[in-house]
Amino acid sequence: MIMRPDHVPADLVVDFNAFSGDSIEQALEKAESWRRLGPVVWTDHNGGHWVITSHAGVRQVLSDAARFSSAQPRKGVTLVEVDRELHVPIEMDGDEHRQYRRLLIPLFSPRRVQQMQDTIRDVARSLIAGFGERGSCEVVAEYARPLASSMFLGMLDWPLKDREMLEHLAELQLNGPANATQEERAAAKLDAGNQIAQYVRDRVAERRSGVKATEDMTSVIIDSTLDDGAPIPENKLVALLRLLMIAGLDTTQSVLSQSLAYLGEHPEAQEYLRTHPEEIPAIVEEFLRMGAPAMPSRTATADTEVEGVRIAKGDTVHCLIAAANHDAAEYDQPDIAVFTRAVNRHVAFSVGPHKCIGAPLARVVLAAALEEFHRAVASYSVVAAQSHSGAVWGMNRVDLAIKNATVTA
């Protein structure tokens, strides 16, 4: 807890700890209960910060990089101080951010990721073959995570044998260990970040030594130059590749796991997807709305207002994207997956200058993964599921009972 700033109204204070270990359902229920107080509330946890739950408020903050910075020293887009190089480019602002973003956008162009369709589907079918005949599946470990990780490690051309180790480190870097104190969490996140950074340095050294020289994403980034023709500084290069790894291994699998958990509890939605494959792109957008994974923060650079609430210079503002995507002021039936939703302005990929560069890849992976799963599996239901909130929301596990799977590796 902290000494609460004088400009924070007492009637806007809520008891919210982003790292409390709440499930997604619990976190969303809390956010919904705060709406009676207003779209912007304050918590004293994690250094004290604002929490934005409205769609309009989240859009305002994320769209305005001048008033809400991503590059606060020792903080970036996190709620607490960090002892690491800030992530590149999401914890940069202005021209510096633009330079690095320019390098990455071509690597995730819709045309480039569409060329990966066959590979994505081959991996999906191979994974389904591993559990289809058994009649059960733990979605996170057996489908969503290995599919997303295999695709992204392939793009980077990093050893697939390191997948599980890297997934574990990515989870620790994002949320820390479960049920840990703030000090324990900070120590675990720092250690995980250091291990990831060293792993990245080893991969960079391989490329530069000529041991493994390829045309993969890692090599392209290493050979890239900034606007002035200079190479990317070593510390920024490591921070950039570290971010790509963490984002690639965690966020897409989170949405896929949440999607299959929802479908496993709603057989009518499951059947609709199976019988309307031409609508899968729109269905993916609805699941992105329903299961947004990342909850970014910003730092106010000047005194301002959000939804009529005074935000002081230096205040931390936490954008609860999942709550914004369930805002009844923006969406009819916000807690139900409406596959025929006419307008879907979800903010799962953020908005503004920091909108997710990897969105085209995520959409392609999600669409292919959902289609292949429902092409192979005639029906399935959830036996048990467990989720988590935090810096990135997702499923810990989703156990499915599967009926009548057609296995084609």
TrEMBL record:
Pfam families: p450. Keywords: Heme, Iron, Metal-binding, Monooxygenase, Oxidoreductase. Gene3D superfamilies: Cytochrome P450 (1.10.630.10). Belongs to the cytochrome P450 family. This is Cytochrome P450. It comes from Actinocorallia aurantiaca.
